[in-house]
Specification:
It is built from eight helices and three strands, in the order ααααααααβββ. It is mainly alpha-helical. Strands 2-1-3 form a three-stranded mixed sheet, with no helix packed on it. A hairpin with a 2-residue loop joins β1 and β2.
Length: about 170
C-alpha cells in the first residue's frame, strides 16, 4: 500500500509528464496516471485543485482523460459521485465549459457515467453539462487592416502569411 503523501507526489509527477510533446511518453503517463488513480479516486480532486488553472492544455486534456479512465474502471460508486461533483465545479458550474472539445467531453463523460450508475448528483445541472454550450470562443477576430501590417515582399510577390516579420520587412 502506498502512503498518501507518496501517492500525491507520484500523481503530481505523472501529471507534469503530461506536458511533454513526446507522444509515447505522454500516452504512457496518461495510462499510468489512470491506473494509479483507479483505486485512489480521491486523488482526482487533489490533482484538479492543483492543476485546474494551468494554461497548458496538454496537461488538462490528459489529466481529464486519465481521471475519466479511472472513473470508468472504478467500482466505488460514492467516489465516482464525488469526482463528478469536483469536475462539475471546475468545468460546468460557471455555465461556460472549456472550448477544448476533448477536455469538455471527458468532463461530461465523468458526470454522465456517474448518472448511469444511479448516483444522485445534487446541485448539478445536467442541462449545463450537455450541449449546446455557452462557451466563449477564444479566437479573436483580426481585421484586414491589421493583417496588412504584416505583409512583406518576397521575390517581388506580396506575402501575408508570416506575421513574425515586422511590418514593412522585405526578403531578398
Amino acid at each position: 500500500k502506498v502512503e498518501e503523501d507518496r501517492a500525491k507526489l507520484c500523481c503530481t509527477m505523472l501529471t507534469w509528464l503530461l506536458a511533454t510533446t513526446h507522444r509515447p511518453i505522454r500516452d504512457r503517463a496518461t495510462k499510468s496516471l489512470s491506473s494509479f488513480l483507479r483505486p485512489r479516486l480521491h486523488l482526482a480532486e487533489y490533482l484538479l485543485d492543483k492543476f485546474h488553472s494551468t494554461d497548458d492544455l496538454y496537461i488538462l486534456e490528459r489529466l481529464m482523460a486519465a481521471i475519466y479512465g479511472a472513473v470508468l474502471l472504478s467500482t466505488d460508486r460514492a467516489k465516482v459521485r464525488n469526482v463528478a461533483h469536483v469536475v462539475y465545479k471546475y468545468f460546468f458550474d460557471q455555465k461556460s465549459p472549456p472550448v477544448h472539445i476533448l477536455m469538455r467531453d471527458y468532463a461530461k463523460g465523468i458526470i454522465e457515467f456517474a448518472t448511469t450508475l444511479g448516483e444522485k448528483l445534487e446541485n448539478i445541472s445536467l442541462a449545463s453539462v450537455r450541449p449546446p454550450y455557452k462557451s466563449e470562443w477564444s479566437v479573436k477576430y483580426i481585421s484586414e487592416a491589421q493583417l496588412e501590417k504584416y505583409s512583406y515582399l518576397r521575390n517581388g510577390h506580396l506575402c501575408k502569411d508570416d506575421i513574425t516579420l515586422s511590418a514593412g520587412s522585405e526578403w531578398t
